[in-house]
Amino acid sequence: MNADGVFEGGGVKAIGFVGAVCKMEEAGFKWQRLAGTSAGAIVASLLAVGYTGKELKEIIPGIDYLSFVDGKSLKQISFIKNTFNLLTKYGFYSGDKIEIFLNNLFQKKGRTKFKNICSSNNCKLKVIISDITRKKAVIFPDDLKEYNIDAKEFSIARAVRMSISLPYYFQPVTLNYKDNLDYMVDGGIFSNFPVWLFDVDGIPRWPTIGFKLVDSDPGKIKKNNILTFTKDLLDSVIYTSDETFITNKDKVRTINIPTMGVKTTEFNISKEKSKELYLSGYNSAENFLSEWNFNQYIRSYRKKS
User: Fold this and answer.
1) Peptide bond between residue 204 and the one before it cis (omega within 30 degrees of 0)
2) What's the domain count of the chain?
3) Per-residue pLDDT tens for 135-148?
4) E-only strand ranges, 26-120
5) Catalytic residues
6) Which among 80, 193, 215, 230 could bridge 8 via Cys, Cβ 3.0 to 4.6 Å?
7) More reliable by pLDDT, 127 or 224
8) CATH number for the domain that contains residue 37
């Protein structure tokens, strides 16, 4: 069955998406359009350029996340360097290594720019980004015209890098907008789970399946020091984004994946925990498929009046 897929943000927890995607593809689902926020944009973009769930199973769990942050956690970086980067660059880490890593993966499929995955007005991928200067969510490549940028020539890896630029952790990317510099950061700040993105009036040709990460216990914000406070605060912001806007028609088409206590910024995640997350996603998709019925969804939520 053809389907669109929308992936929530969630940092390293996105490993769970891979398990869910593998199960959905085993069941015969073929992805037509994909969208994602933050780490969800990584999974969506890799699928959009031609990777399969089976291939992602070999790539995502094996990622050395610490290499993206110069091999060090925040606790291991000197206070002086932390302060300098934060005050001058608005983030502890550059994000360059993530962009290079993704671009290399896209090159292997021969698709590094949006023109390689778009035709006429239809694009296989939509990346959600937060423009904190204008205080709004933007969708690339659709909204690139607002910045006077040729969407066809824009780097997919660059767009994804913007979407995963968690404030304070990764330095924001800047774009020119009406002679001003706009700061682009993690899409989850304004829209962490835009499952509605591909909705149309009337009856859709195929379903949109949402992939959502669920914390069994989000926990309380800890204030042991500025670093743990910042980490927990960002986890809380991402966790609550879009939560109040999820309707019943969205819930029934969404695969909810327990995150096994893993935190968004747990860059030193173990292989064992990665495997648990993968299996959590796989089993969650299996449970979803045991109840999912597209025709029933149409009758209940999308039938023409």
Assistant:
1) no
2) 1
3) 999 999 999 999 99
4) 30-37, 91-93, 118-119
5) 38, 186
6) 193
7) 127
8) 3.40.1090.10
